[in-house]
Amino acid sequence: MATEGRRDDPSMKDADEVARALGADPDRGLTSQEASRRFSENGANELRTAPRTPMWGRVLSQFQDPLIYLLLAAIAIALVAWAIEGFTGWPVDAIVIASIVRSCCSTGC
Description:
2 domains; 109 residues; mainly alpha; rod-shaped; single chain
């Protein structure tokens, strides 16, 4: 059951109880021999770091938002409309929407 798992969870126990379960004295800590033994068994007391995501992966992850897909479709529609009109002037709508997409993807919106 879920309650059994919570009883074994160290965060749900008193600090003295956790220290006793780990074989440590809450007032004096570990002995030098015990600390050396645990260091050789478990390694240094440091958190594992997750591998860094490359820049291209972070940029591509910004394109997973459905709103970005909608804006990209709006760019395509604006460019098609500009082409139908005979490529006259600048495709201002497409440029503005593309700048919004670029700013969102570069800032991580």
